[in-house]
């Protein structure tokens, strides 16, 4: 399985470094066979798409565009359905429409899907009623049912994850190429259940304003503006399962370097961001833009080490720092990190993940997040970056286009009692459609007030 080594890096050099959050497969031969087959399957994305995203991230670094990254905390194979994929795309398109109109600039849309099948775990095993089984690590590894057969890591799931990712990307591209994302027809994006949304009127005003603007520009131009009939859309997932990532890391003709062609934008989670760890070693060698989650526990030396290791040539659009502090901690920790990166002269794109630092449990032990905390962290992120002479280039959200009740608050003021109605996430709580759209509207409203 291991290709010839180079003096510095190759897709399997991570095997010489400590690798955490990796499952233990009971049959090494079956694993090797699955990875060999995976390495010969067609890539899911192309190198020129990756380069296009890097160029857009470079613009976002300079404040010339905004990045909206969002999707499920963890995809499931069962949710690879046309309606769920379309609804997920709809909510991101509607949020981006609000942001484009309100922030007066282009938006890069990055979905947390088509590969987000693995999840880090706080423990390798789980015990219930005296029985201990391997932890559920996402559908790419095992199944959530608490049985010995379901929790056994299965290498065939690697092939299934590739297939489900391919189907998701194929349908997404088909929708976009077919005019689903046409700004002339945002009514295509309506969700069936949102007719009574408290935010519908505000959103409709923005839709009408964009329609009027498009018609005015087309009148001046004398023909249709076809560049508004489709949008770029990119995929992302956490680069957690390194054998899966390495098997889809390729060289391409007439370009130097290696590309992870399972996704446009892989990121490293906080649990796997050790400087000498296998995940940093793997990600430092690929040409894709790479993200790193950073929290309040990270120190300046660690952060600067990540900058040097993951972007040694200080290339624009290459390194994305995704801070996830929590509304109560961000003011204490983020300024020193921004200052250190600035003093070190490192080029980075800053994104705010307002979800993970604000997770809490209800009185009955249900994991949730409060919309007010999520919104507060986003607002504080803009303010703190502005105060430091820096620039917040986007947000990283866990959301869904489904009518779930997993996060508290928002326009409908969801309470703990409401959570029982439609709590469907197997891992982390997500913003539902209304809450996600409300967040976009609030971002625009706050930024316009700050600019005036």
UniProtKB/TrEMBL annotation:
SUPFAM superfamilies: Aldolase (SSF51569). Keywords: Cadmium, Cobalt, Manganese, Transferase. One of its GO terms (biological process) is aromatic amino acid family biosynthetic process. Phosphoenolpyruvate binds at residues 112, 293, 324. It catalyses: D-erythrose 4-phosphate + phosphoenolpyruvate + H2O = 7-phospho-2-dehydro-3-deoxy-D-arabino-heptonate + phosphate. Its EC number is 2.5.1.54. It is an enzyme of class 2 (transferase). The keyword Transcription does not apply. One of its GO terms (molecular function) is 3-deoxy-7-phosphoheptulonate synthase activity. Coiled coil: none annotated. It comes from the Bacteria. Pfam families: DAHP_synth_2 (PF01474). Mn(2+) binds at residues 73, 356, 398, 428. Its cofactor is Mn(2+); Co(2+); Cd(2+). InterPro entries: Aldolase_TIM, DAHP_synth_2. Binds 1 divalent cation per subunit. The enzyme is active with manganese, cobalt or cadmium ions. Belongs to the class-II DAHP synthase family. This is Phospho-2-dehydro-3-deoxyheptonate aldolase.
């Amino acid at each position: 399985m291991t290709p010839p080594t180079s003096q510095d890096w190759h897709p399997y050099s991570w095997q010489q470094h400590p690798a955490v959050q990796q499952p233990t497969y009971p049959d090494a031969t079956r694993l090797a066979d699955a990875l060999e087959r995976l390495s010969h399957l067609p890539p899911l994305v192309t190198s020129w798409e990756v380069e296009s995203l890097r160029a857009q991230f470079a613009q976002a670094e300079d404040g010339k565009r905004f990045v909206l990254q969002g999707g499920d905390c963890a995809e499931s194979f069962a949710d690879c359905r046309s309606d769920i994929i379309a609804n997920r795309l709809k909510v991101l398109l509607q949020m981006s429409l609000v942001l484009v109109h309100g922030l007066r600039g282009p938006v890069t849309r990055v979905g947390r899907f088509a590969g987000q099948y693995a999840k880090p775990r706080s423990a390798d095993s789980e015990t219930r009623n005296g029985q201990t089984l391997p932890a559920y690590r996402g559908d790419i590894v095992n199944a959530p049912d608490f049985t010995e057969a379901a929790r056994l890591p299965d290498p065939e799931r690697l092939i299934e994850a590739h297939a489900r990712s391919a189907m998701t990307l194929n349908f997404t591209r088909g929708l976009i190429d077919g005019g689903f994302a046409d700004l002339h027809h945002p009514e295509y994006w309506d969700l069936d259940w949102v007719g009574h949304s408290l935010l519908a009127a505000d959103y409709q005003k923005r839709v009408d304003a964009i329609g009027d603007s498009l018609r005015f520009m087309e009148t001046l131009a004398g023909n249709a503006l076809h560049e508004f009939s489709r949008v770029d859309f990119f995929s992302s997932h956490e680069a957690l399962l390194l054998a899966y990532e390495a098997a889809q890391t390729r060289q391409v003709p007439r370009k130097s370097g290696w590309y992870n062609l399972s996704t446009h934008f892989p990121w490293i989670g906080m649990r796997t961001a050790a400087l000498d760890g296998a995940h940093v070693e793997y990600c430092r060698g690929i040409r894709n833009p790479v993200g790193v989650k950073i929290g309040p526990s990270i120190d300046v030396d660690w952060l600067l080490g990540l900058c040097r290791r993951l972007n040694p040539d200080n290339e624009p659009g290459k390194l994305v720092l995704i801070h996830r502090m929590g509304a109560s901690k961000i003011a204490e920790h983020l300024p020193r990190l921004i200052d250190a990166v600035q003093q070190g002269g490192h080029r980075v794109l800053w994104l705010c993940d307002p979800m993970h630092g604000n997770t809490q449990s209800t009185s009955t032990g249900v994991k949730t997040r409060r919309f007010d905390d999520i919104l507060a962290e986003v607002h504080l992120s803009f303010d703190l970056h502005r105060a430091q002479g820096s620039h917040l280039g986007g947000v990283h959200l866990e959301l869904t286009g489904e009518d779930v009740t997993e996060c508290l608050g928002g326009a409908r003021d969801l309470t703990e009692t409401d959570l029982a109605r439609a709590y469907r996430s197997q891992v982390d709580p997500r913003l539902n459609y209304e809450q996600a759209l409300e967040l976009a509207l609030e971002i625009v409203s706050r930024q316009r007030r700050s600019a005036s």
